[in-house]
């Protein structure tokens, strides 16, 4: 006997499968890869910039430790090391004190600079002249940038 009731011949209605967030569409994968690449490039860029500025930051920190007039040679050495770091072949590094003083004065023309011959090589350095030299070095280190040091 055949089934004459049409309702019994129907199968249950199946609901469609829900779309979930996983796995994402290919466009989202591409966007994720692009963001990761951009973040890596940005990190690399800022890391190199940070590393290039490291000698300048260290020179500023070391300058805070130089306070006494008998440390004038250390102050001079600090400034020369900084120039050597960014411009290793600069002619002023092996030049006499007079040329070194002229070079420094060109960096900050408006700031007074004492006679370095006297400050560096006198047995009892004058505290006032050392203070002027230290202030000059401090202003120069805070004014100068890495790009300026590389162009010396």
TrEMBL record:
<dbReference type="InterPro" id="IPR025489">
    <property type="entry name" value="DUF4381"/>
</dbReference>
<protein>
    <recommendedName>
        <fullName>DUF4381 domain-containing protein</fullName>
    </recommendedName>
</protein>
<feature type="transmembrane region" description="Helical">
    <location>
        <begin position="28"/>
        <end position="47"/>
    </location>
</feature>
<keyword id="KW-1133">Transmembrane helix</keyword>
<keyword id="KW-0812">Transmembrane</keyword>
<dbReference type="Pfam" id="PF14316">
    <property type="entry name" value="DUF4381"/>
</dbReference>
<keyword id="KW-0472">Membrane</keyword>
